[in-house]
Specification:
This protein is of the alpha/beta class. It contains eleven helices and five strands. It has a five-stranded parallel beta sheet with strand order 2-1-3-4-5, with helices on both faces. GO terms for molecular function: hydrolase activity. InterPro entries: RhgT-like (IPR037459), SGNH_hydro (IPR013830), SGNH_hydro_sf (IPR036514).
């Protein structure tokens, strides 16, 4: 079930977790969850030329023994992630962990795919393949729409061309009956609420409107964590809550 950012999201969180089937909760308690994060630089670890939400999610939102591995690759498209060997590495980890853990693979691309000419169908085909590959190995794929860029119009709205690519990811998710979270829509909403001056405090550097510094990774890693537990209630059993940060995010209040 998709949850609107306009709802009182902390209240929704408690309601959804409480309503989760007992068998799902017991499964989450009986074995750890492993999160494999596949994506471009807006998922990747902070570096000179990239950095996304992945490490904020990995380092601040999970209860041991559950853990995440960040495979975000700067400059990656769906095609290069597959052809360059990153995807084979991810699938190898799915196979390695699926016997003893619940394995979730988040798949977030679009920032670089959108730069290629006549690439829409290739993008969707690659996402379908990724989803099928994970399911065949007893993993749980989760399609993630792209993190918004932080370019603002004069009226304070986000000027972002990623909307169609978010739509393509959702289209594939619905077609393949795969879980998804709409990070693009929710990050746009949050950025419009906090405004451009506050958004600069989340940037990798003063001129970067795409990548995140460590505080930015913490904020959007928490957003991803919240969205995941609302989409898949069993995940709520393996995440560490930060009620203060979550309330600030979903109320549109700048944290840093």
């Amino acid at each position: 079930m998709k949850v609107s950012v306009l709802l009182s999201l902390l209240g929704v969180s408690f309601q959804i977790v409480a309503a989760a089937p007992a068998k799902h909760q017991k499964a989450a308690e009986s074995k750890p969850s492993v999160f494999l994060l596949a994506g471009d630089s807006t998922t990747a670890t902070q570096a000179a030329n990239g950095g996304g939400w992945g490490d904020g999610f990995k380092n601040f939102t999970l209860k041991a023994p559950s853990f995440a591995i960040n495979y975000g690759h700067n400059g990656a498209t769906t095609s290069s992630f597959i052809s360059g060997g990153d995807w084979a590495t991810v699938l190898g980890k799915v196979e390695a962990y699926a016997g003893n853990s619940t394995v979730y693979v988040t798949i977030q691309f679009g920032h670089n795919d959108m730069k290629l000419t006549n690439y829409t169908e290739t993008f969707k085909t690659n996402l379908r393949r990724m989803v099928a590959d994970v399911k065949e190995r007893n993993g749980e794929p989760v399609l993630v729409t792209s993190l918004s860029r932080r370019n603002y119009n004069a009226n304070g709205t986000i000027a972002d061309t990623l909307a169609p690519w978010a739509g393509y990811a959702i289209e594939v998710a619905e077609e393949t009956e795969t879980h998804y979270i709409d990070l693009w829509k929710n990050s746009v909403h949050y950025l419009e609420q906090i405004g451009q001056p506050a958004s600069l405090k989340l940037a990798l550097n003063d001129n970067d409107r795409t990548h995140l510094n460590v505080p930015g990774s913490i904020v959007f890693g928490r957003m991803v964590s919240d969205l995941l537990k609302w989409e898949i209630p069993a995940i709520g059993e393996v995440v560490k809550e930060n009620a203060t940060l979550s309330e600030q995010i979903w109320s549109g209040v700048a944290t840093f």
